[in-house]
Amino acid sequence: MAKNGKSGYYIGIDLGGTNMQVGVVSSDLKLLSQAKKKTKAEDGIDGVMSRIVEGVVEACSEAKVKLTDLEAIGLAAPGAVDPSEGIVLAADNLRWTETPAAQILQKRTGVKTYLDNDVNAAVWGENRLGAGKNSKNLLGVWLGTGIGGGLIFNGELYYGPFFTAGEIGHMISLPFNPPGERSLEHNCSRTAIVNRLVKLIKANRKSKLVDLAEGDLDKIKSKLVAKAYEDKDELTVEVLDSAAELLGITLGGVTTLLSLDRIVLGGGLTEAMGNPWVNLVEQHTRKFAFPERCKQVKVVASTLEDRAGLMGAAMIAMQRHEEK
Question: Are residues 97 and 219 in the same domain?
Answer without folding.
Answer: no
